Please model this.
Amino acid sequence: MLHKILILSCIKLLTTNVILSQIKVHFFDNVREIEINRYQDVKGTPYLYKEWRFADIVDNNGLMFKNVKINYNGYTKNFEVRIDDRFIELNEKFYRRIEIILSDKKRKDVYLSGVHEKFKEKFILVLFNKINTMLLKDFEVGISEHEVQNVGKTVVFKKFVPITRYFIVSSDGLIPIYLNKKSIRSYFEDKIDLDDFAKENKIRMNSEGDIIKILEYWIQTTDY
Model:
């Protein structure tokens, strides 16, 4: 029995090493490695996730790479992959889907490439996707600079500034939407009786979850 367990353990270890080797070869072939500490002079972070997450990545041939450590850099607008102590930018041209496992390990953030002409060269987070209707979330980061005179010398302070944008894709095309009543009412005013639905369901129209509930209701009450 012990002999059998040892054999199975060796097989599992060998399989794991083979998978890791394949991932390393795949991701580090013809890509540009990056320096993780290149933003030391900028306050804040360009990354979307506070901690590096594990993700399942699907390439254009349908091949899936599981449990790849990843984060999204809003400043460069690229996903970055970390394997051991090496970091690379993921080339979105070779991949079509990224599923990031969230901290509760039950939910996933799903990113798709090529969902719309506006985002053909980047991954976009898909918050809702049913019957040709999508809610997209786009995250970018800029840098603000502030100059201060210090003993006759100009000191420049830099800070990362996150920017989040939302879009609804439907038969109406790609329409930007904001997390406020004015924007949400404007989009849905000729589609559903929004105020009654919001009142009955205690929807304040100021969050991602609110827009998703409204989209669900719209889909249910629309004839296709």
The helical segments are 2-27, 181-188, 194-200, 208-220.
